[in-house]
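anyone seen this seq b4? input:
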Amino acid sequence: MAVTHRISQRIGAIAESATLAVDAKAKAMKAEGKPVIGFGAGEPDFPTADYIVEAAVVAARDPKSHRYSPAGGQPALKEAVAATTAQHSGLQVTPQQVLISNGGKQALYNAFATLLNPGDEVLLPAPFWTTYPEMINLCGGLVVDVPTDESTGYRTSIAQLEKYTSDRTKALVFVSPSNPSGAVYSPAEVEAIGQWAVERGIWVITDEIYEHLVYGDATFSSMPVLVPDLADQCIVVNGVAKTYAMTGWRVGWMIGPPDMVKAATNLQSHATSNVCNVAQAAALAAVSGGLGVVEQMREAFDRRRLTIVAGLNGIPGFVCPEPEGAFYAYPSVKGALGRDIRGRVATSTTELAEIILDEVEVAVVPGEAFGTPGYLRFSYALGDADLIEGVERIRALLSE
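predicted toks r here
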C-alpha cells in the first residue's frame, strides 16, 4: 500500500517559528561575515548572572543531578516558585499547584493540552506571539482572533471579547506585558476582563513571562490576584527566561488548580520526564536571589525603548506607539508598503522585511507572524550602538 502522506496532517500544518527563523537567517549571514543587525530574537542580550551559573556548576558536580528527579519539578524549586509568585505578584499558591517545565513553551503546551477538547474555541487577541495559535491547533482547539491595533494601544476590551465569544468558547489567552506589542493593561482593565471571564465561565491562560519588565507609569497586574474568584479557572505561565536572561536554560512553570496541574504533570511525565536538574538548580538560584540583576536590565531596556520609538517614528511610513513593557516595539508600517525601494515593491510586511534584510542587512519580524499584517516587530534587546545603526539603515533606505 502506497504511503500518501509521510508527515501527519497535524504536524504538517505547523508553521516554523517566524522569530526563530529570522534569527537563524541573521546569524547565518553574520557567520558569512556580513554586518547584520538583528532585531528578531526575543531574548535579553545580557549574560546570565554569575551566581546563577555557579549554582549550575555546583549542581553539575553533584551525582544527584545525574539521575531522574520528579517529573513535575524538584520540590525545592516548586516551593521557591510559589514563594516568589506570592512575593512579586501577590498570588498565593501551594507547591502542589506548580509544575516545572522545559521553558514557558512547554508550560503553555501542557496548559492547552490539559484544558482543550476538539472544537473548543480559544480567544486570542492579536497581535499575538507566533507560537500560541500553533499550540492551540495542535491540541485540537480552534483559534478565534480578536483584532486590536495601535489606536487602542494594542489592548482588547470586554466589548471586543464579547463580540467574538460563542457557546464553544473555552478559554482566553491573556498577555500583559505583551509580545509583540509591548502593551500593558491597567489594573482596572485586567480586573474588568477577569471579572468578565468569571461571569462567562471562561478559562484564562495568562502568560506573565514579562512581569518584571514594565516602564514609565505602567504596572504589572496578575489577573487571579485582582479577581480571586477566577483562581479555579485560571492557569498562570511564567519562567526564568526573560527576567533573568536565561532563555537557553529552558526552565518555566505553570500554576493552576491542583487537578489541572496533576493532569499536566501526568502529560509531562510521558513527554519529557523531569527538566534538566542542572538547569533547575540554576533556576532555584535565580528565583531565590532577588531582582537586582533584573533591575539593571530593565533600566537598559527602558533607555533603548525610548531611543527606538523616536527612531522608528522618524522613518517614512512608520507609526510606532510607545511600548510600556517587555522589550519590543511594534510599529505600523502600512505607509511604507507599495513604494518602490531600489527597484522592488513590497506589498506585504513579509516582503518589506525581506527587502530590508537584503538591502541593508537588518533583520526584523513581519507582522504576519503575529496575526497582524502591516506591522513589523523590533526587539530592542540588543546593544545601543547596533540599535541606533539598525534603525538608521532602515530610515536611509526608505528615504531614498
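The chain is about 40% helix and 15% strand. The two ends are 59 Å apart (CA to CA). kinda curious what u guys think
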